[in-house]
């Protein structure tokens, strides 16, 4: 079964609402490619204006984070219901920046993943190793642990629709892309891990992205790998280059 590629931009903490509208309008014609799912994950305040600007295009607007409660005294957080009401279908969960600066753990990632599914939002679940972990040879063990906890109590039917983003932390924003072999090796290990937790059908269905300094020049080879189903793109998603990444196959 051929998996449809999914290429998502993660804008991180960039773009005011005014800038967001301008960027969506600029990129709209450049990212037209019906063969892939195109998602722009934007800051919460940009979701509604970006959604408006993206109307009539193939762009899905996603969120960069979400809390695991529906409502209440959680100052500053944004709930799954709020995202659903705004029309959001994808949410990035457990990005390494959230883990590093905002104390997210595998356990909170799991809670968020379960909540996203409960509300019909597709989670883009991030995992990835640090440089020290890679140098110590524990990358695969580490990633397997992240995946196993993230998917605790997630059903096979839910897991089939999930997206996993493998992002080696040392490759994020550094210009150091993992080699194609490194990226494919870990993405294959993630798929095998999903197969162990669930079954082969689930492993075959789940989509796994690579993220970390993806550029227009590295995208075609990365996305041609058997276990890489697209990318989670940071810096390059804010530029016209993102159009080239989305159209890597043209
Ligand atoms: O979520 C995206 C990643 O953190 C990659 O960011 P980058 O493409 O700027 O390295």
Describe how the helices and strands are arranged.
Elements: E1 5-10, H1 17-27, E2 36-42, H2 47-54, E3 59-63, H3 80-85, E4 90-93, H4 96-101, H5 106-118, E5 122-127, H6 131-135, H7 139-150, H8 156-161, E6 163-166, H9 180-197, H10 200-205, E7 207-211, H11 219-223, E8 230-233, H12 241-246
Helix pairs in contact: 1-2, 7-9
Glyceraldehyde-3-phosphate binds near residues 95, 172 and 213.
CATH arch. level architecture:
Alpha-Beta Barrel
Write the CATH fold name: TIM Barrel
How many individual β-strands? 8
Strand order of the largest sheet: 3-2-1-8-7-6-5-4
| Unreliable segments of 5+ consecutive residues | none
Bound molecule types = glyceraldehyde-3-phosphate
Number of domains: 1
Classification by helices and strands: alpha/beta
Intertermini distance: 21 Å
User: What is the H level of CATH, i.e. the homologous superfamily?
Assistant: Aldolase class I
Number of helices: 12
If you compute it from the alpha carbons, what radius of gyration comes out, rounded to the nearest whole angstrom?
Answer: 17 Å
Q: Give the overall pLDDT as a whole number.
A: 97
Share in helix: 40-55%
**Helix-strand topology string:** EHEHEHEHHEHHHEHHEHEH
Task: Determine the strand fraction and express it as a percent band.
Answer: 15-25%
Q: Give the CA-based shape.
A: globular
User: Quick one: biggest sheet?
Assistant: 8 strands, parallel
The first-level CATH class is given as Alpha Beta
